[in-house]
């Protein structure tokens, strides 16, 4: 299984991968699904928001048009960062596996863990980080050394 847990591996992934699709992106600045990708954008990551709730409004977040599904992304994405409940990962798994270009990494935010989904992703050659905040890891591993 390709579950990434060590700080050294996470540091390398954060340094080498700069395009991030954020599944469950939100416009409310008080929600992690807004302030985490905002922080990442400020730190030179390209953020692609994914949330079907905002598509009808033609909303833009983080400088990009919101798309409904991961499969709507034409760009090659390095990381899919997921803000969904652990028990609600089956549909995103299918969307990830149906993407035009498979991501290198799926990041399940703090509080999100599903070993079965992680196993299925790793069987497709996709690394997985579970139950970790990307913002906190970035601040701890990268921002303090800059």
Written account of the structure:
The protein is α/β, with parallel strands linked by helices and 146 residues long. The protein is built from 5 helices and 7 strands. It has a 5-stranded parallel β-sheet with strand order 2-1-5-6-7. A two-stranded antiparallel sheet has the order 3-4. Strand 6 (105-108), helix 4 and strand 7 form a beta-alpha-beta unit. The radius of gyration is 14 Å and the shape is globular. The N and C termini lie far apart (32 Å).
Quick synopsis:
The protein has five helices and seven strands, in the order αβαββββαβαβα. It has 146 residues and is an alpha/beta fold. α3 links the parallel β5 and β6.
